[in-house]
Every structure is written in C-alpha cells, then in structure tokens.
Known about the structure:
The structure is a single chain. The protein is mostly helical. Helices cover about 70% and strands about 0% of the residues. The radius of gyration is 15 Å and the shape is globular.
Amino acid sequence: xxxxxxxxxxxxxxxxxxxxxxxxxxxFNLASGPIQxxxxxxxxxxxxFNRKYLIGVTLGVVLYNAxxxxxxxxxxxFGGGQTLIGLGLVAWLGPKLPAxxxxxxxxxxxxxxxxxxxAWEIVWTGHLGANMLLPTFATLLPSEAVMLLIAxxxxxxxxxxxHFDRRMQ
Length: 169
C-alpha cells in the first residue's frame, strides 16, 4: 500500500468500524436520544493518537446517522458537526500537549462539552422548548464522558498492540 493511500484506507476502516459499533449500540437502544452510550464513541480517542483519524471518525458519524438515525439528515448535520467541532479542537490543541493522557482527557472534555449541540438538536426536533436544553445536556454530557472515560484505558492498551500513530504514517 502506498504512503498516500494508507491514511485513506485506514480511515475507511474506521468509518466501517464506527458504523458497526453504533449498530451494536443501537440494538440496545443506546445509540440515539437524550442518553447515548455509543460504543463507537470510543473511536474519538483515535484523534488523540493522530489527528488524521478525524476524517474517519467524522465520516463514520455522518454515515451512521444518514443510514440509521431516526432524525435523518438533521442528525447528519448536528452529529457530524458536533464531531467535527469537538475533534477539530482535539486535532488543533492535541499536538501542543506532550502526554497521551492529556490528549485523551482533552478528547473526553471536548466531546462531552460539545454534546450541547446534540442537546439543542434533540430539543429542537422534539419541540421541547428552550427550558429543556440544560436538562437534556445534563444527560448527554455524563453519558458521553462515561463512555470516553471507560474507553481511554482500553485505547491505551489497544495502542500498545496496534500503534495507532504509526499506522497513519
């Protein structure tokens, strides 16, 4: 495989893995709504290892939401946008942080805080009224944070075997 095509192939695998893990979460009704425990969200941490994973994770969100989200195109825009913004911050600020744990913490904080975008989407599409924004965010933020906190040590262990950064070079 050429050096130019390698990141594209790896990102295509990330897209596929994101979709499959989201489908598994969806089987248990945990992939959408005001409480979300998408197993696929653990892949957000890949950007802490190498920012080139931003493309694969974002496209995974977009593809899953386009094919399976009950909110359709709205979830493509909001979910894809939230992922792009949250992981964009990680891609931008992450290289300034020397320790992996700092980049993983940045991913957790960034993706959890940007769940306000998803809260806004749920409130807007559900016609819930602005007073429901913070209560909805209050369920989304911890569900995202818990998923990413559980995933961080697992991703560290996986990196020891897979070497996420070297795969993208």
